[in-house]
Amino acid sequence: MISVARFEKARNGDITRIYGQEEVVCPVCGGELKVHGTCTRKVRHGDHTHRYHLRVMECRCCGKTHRELPEGIVPYKRHGLNSLCEIAEAIETQHTCETSTWLRIRFWLAWFLWYAQNIMEGLIAAGHIPATFYPGHSLRRRTASFVRLVANSGNWEQHRSAMTRKYIPSILVPS
Asked: Model pTM?
Protein backbone atom coordinates (compact mmCIF):
# COMPACT_ATOMS: atom_id res chain seq x y z
CA MET A 1 0.00 0.00 0.00
CA ILE A 2 0.98 3.58 -0.59
CA SER A 3 -0.30 6.55 1.40
CA VAL A 4 -0.86 9.75 -0.58
CA ALA A 5 -1.45 13.18 0.93
CA ARG A 6 -2.47 14.93 -2.32
CA PHE A 7 -5.38 13.30 -4.08
CA GLU A 8 -8.54 14.11 -5.99
CA LYS A 9 -11.96 12.89 -4.87
CA ALA A 10 -14.90 12.22 -7.16
CA ARG A 11 -18.28 11.10 -5.81
CA ASN A 12 -20.33 8.63 -7.82
CA GLY A 13 -23.45 7.82 -5.81
CA ASP A 14 -22.32 6.32 -2.52
CA ILE A 15 -18.78 5.55 -3.74
CA THR A 16 -15.89 8.02 -3.50
CA ARG A 17 -13.24 7.56 -6.18
CA ILE A 18 -9.69 8.48 -5.16
CA TYR A 19 -7.01 9.55 -7.64
CA GLY A 20 -3.55 10.23 -6.23
CA GLN A 21 -1.81 13.34 -7.54
CA GLU A 22 1.68 12.46 -6.35
CA GLU A 23 4.52 10.65 -8.03
CA VAL A 24 5.21 7.76 -5.68
CA VAL A 25 7.63 4.88 -6.01
CA CYS A 26 7.34 1.24 -5.04
CA PRO A 27 7.97 0.92 -1.28
CA VAL A 28 9.59 -2.49 -1.91
CA CYS A 29 12.17 -1.72 -4.59
CA GLY A 30 11.80 1.98 -5.44
CA GLY A 31 10.62 1.23 -8.97
CA GLU A 32 8.13 3.14 -11.09
CA LEU A 33 4.44 2.39 -10.52
CA LYS A 34 1.69 2.13 -13.10
CA VAL A 35 -2.09 1.85 -12.65
CA HIS A 36 -2.99 -1.85 -12.68
CA GLY A 37 -6.67 -1.78 -11.72
CA THR A 38 -9.04 -0.73 -8.96
CA CYS A 39 -10.58 -2.11 -5.79
CA THR A 40 -13.32 -1.09 -3.38
CA ARG A 41 -12.64 -0.46 0.31
CA LYS A 42 -15.13 0.13 3.12
CA VAL A 43 -14.05 2.38 5.99
CA ARG A 44 -15.98 3.38 9.10
CA HIS A 45 -16.07 7.06 9.93
CA GLY A 46 -18.04 7.41 13.17
CA ASP A 47 -21.48 5.89 12.69
CA HIS A 48 -21.24 5.74 8.91
CA THR A 49 -19.43 3.38 6.56
CA HIS A 50 -18.02 4.94 3.40
CA ARG A 51 -17.02 3.06 0.28
CA TYR A 52 -13.91 4.13 -1.58
CA HIS A 53 -12.85 3.13 -5.07
CA LEU A 54 -9.03 2.96 -4.91
CA ARG A 55 -6.43 2.55 -7.62
CA VAL A 56 -4.20 -0.52 -7.53
CA MET A 57 -0.67 0.29 -8.64
CA GLU A 58 1.83 -2.25 -10.00
CA CYS A 59 5.60 -1.86 -9.90
CA ARG A 60 7.21 -2.05 -13.33
CA CYS A 61 10.39 -3.52 -11.76
CA CYS A 62 9.37 -6.08 -9.11
CA GLY A 63 5.73 -6.63 -10.12
CA LYS A 64 4.34 -6.06 -6.60
CA THR A 65 0.94 -4.42 -6.33
CA HIS A 66 0.00 -1.64 -3.91
CA ARG A 67 -3.27 0.11 -3.07
CA GLU A 68 -3.19 3.89 -3.26
CA LEU A 69 -4.67 5.04 0.07
CA PRO A 70 -5.63 8.66 0.73
CA GLU A 71 -4.59 10.25 3.99
CA GLY A 72 -7.24 9.35 6.54
CA ILE A 73 -7.43 5.66 5.65
CA VAL A 74 -5.22 3.41 7.75
CA PRO A 75 -3.99 0.24 6.01
CA TYR A 76 -5.70 -2.96 7.15
CA LYS A 77 -8.04 -1.12 9.55
CA ARG A 78 -11.83 -0.92 9.34
CA HIS A 79 -11.98 2.48 11.00
CA GLY A 80 -10.70 5.68 9.44
CA LEU A 81 -7.89 7.67 11.06
CA ASN A 82 -10.19 10.16 12.79
CA SER A 83 -12.44 7.39 14.08
CA LEU A 84 -9.45 5.44 15.46
CA CYS A 85 -8.13 8.55 17.22
CA GLU A 86 -11.55 9.45 18.65
CA ILE A 87 -11.94 5.94 20.06
CA ALA A 88 -8.39 5.90 21.45
CA GLU A 89 -8.79 9.32 23.09
CA ALA A 90 -12.12 8.41 24.71
CA ILE A 91 -12.16 7.45 28.36
CA GLU A 92 -13.56 4.07 29.36
CA THR A 93 -17.08 5.35 30.05
CA GLN A 94 -17.35 7.51 26.91
CA HIS A 95 -16.27 5.33 24.00
CA THR A 96 -18.90 4.52 21.38
CA CYS A 97 -17.89 0.93 20.63
CA GLU A 98 -17.62 -2.33 22.52
CA THR A 99 -15.08 -2.33 25.34
CA SER A 100 -13.01 -5.05 23.65
CA THR A 101 -12.81 -2.94 20.47
CA TRP A 102 -11.88 0.17 22.48
CA LEU A 103 -9.08 -1.74 24.27
CA ARG A 104 -7.81 -3.34 21.05
CA ILE A 105 -7.70 0.02 19.24
CA ARG A 106 -5.90 1.71 22.15
CA PHE A 107 -3.37 -1.14 22.35
CA TRP A 108 -2.77 -1.15 18.59
CA LEU A 109 -2.36 2.63 18.42
CA ALA A 110 0.12 2.67 21.33
CA TRP A 111 2.10 -0.14 19.68
CA PHE A 112 1.96 1.54 16.25
CA LEU A 113 3.22 4.89 17.54
CA TRP A 114 6.13 3.13 19.28
CA TYR A 115 6.89 1.09 16.15
CA ALA A 116 6.65 4.12 13.85
CA GLN A 117 8.93 6.16 16.14
CA ASN A 118 11.57 3.43 15.79
CA ILE A 119 11.12 3.29 12.01
CA MET A 120 11.48 7.09 11.86
CA GLU A 121 14.69 7.00 13.93
CA GLY A 122 16.06 4.24 11.68
CA LEU A 123 15.24 6.21 8.52
CA ILE A 124 16.87 9.32 9.98
CA ALA A 125 19.98 7.34 10.95
CA ALA A 126 20.14 5.85 7.44
CA GLY A 127 19.81 9.33 5.89
CA HIS A 128 16.51 8.58 4.12
CA ILE A 129 14.62 11.42 5.83
CA PRO A 130 15.96 14.64 7.36
CA ALA A 131 16.76 14.79 11.08
CA THR A 132 14.31 17.71 11.30
CA PHE A 133 11.33 15.48 10.38
CA TYR A 134 8.52 16.28 12.82
CA PRO A 135 5.39 14.08 12.76
CA GLY A 136 3.23 16.55 14.69
CA HIS A 137 2.07 16.97 18.24
CA SER A 138 -1.63 15.99 18.23
CA LEU A 139 -2.55 12.31 18.12
CA ARG A 140 -4.29 12.70 14.76
CA ARG A 141 -1.45 14.59 13.07
CA ARG A 142 1.21 12.29 14.54
CA THR A 143 -0.69 9.15 13.53
CA ALA A 144 -1.34 10.48 10.00
CA SER A 145 2.35 11.35 9.53
CA PHE A 146 3.48 8.00 10.85
CA VAL A 147 0.97 6.03 8.73
CA ARG A 148 2.34 7.75 5.63
CA LEU A 149 5.97 7.29 6.69
CA VAL A 150 5.68 3.60 7.61
CA ALA A 151 3.52 2.64 4.61
CA ASN A 152 5.66 4.46 2.05
CA SER A 153 8.93 3.13 3.48
CA GLY A 154 7.74 -0.47 3.00
CA ASN A 155 7.78 -1.22 6.73
CA TRP A 156 4.05 -1.72 7.32
CA GLU A 157 3.31 -4.79 9.43
CA GLN A 158 -0.22 -6.05 8.91
CA HIS A 159 -0.13 -9.19 11.05
CA ARG A 160 -1.09 -9.30 14.72
CA SER A 161 2.14 -11.19 15.42
CA ALA A 162 4.04 -8.01 14.51
CA MET A 163 3.25 -6.65 17.98
CA THR A 164 4.94 -9.62 19.65
CA ARG A 165 7.93 -10.21 17.39
CA LYS A 166 11.31 -10.46 19.02
CA TYR A 167 13.42 -9.41 16.04
CA ILE A 168 14.28 -5.87 15.03
CA PRO A 169 12.78 -4.54 11.77
CA SER A 170 15.37 -4.61 8.96
CA ILE A 171 15.49 -0.81 8.67
CA LEU A 172 16.85 -0.63 12.22
CA VAL A 173 19.61 -3.21 11.86
CA PRO A 174 22.99 -1.50 11.34
CA SER A 175 24.67 -2.38 8.04
From this structure: 0.82
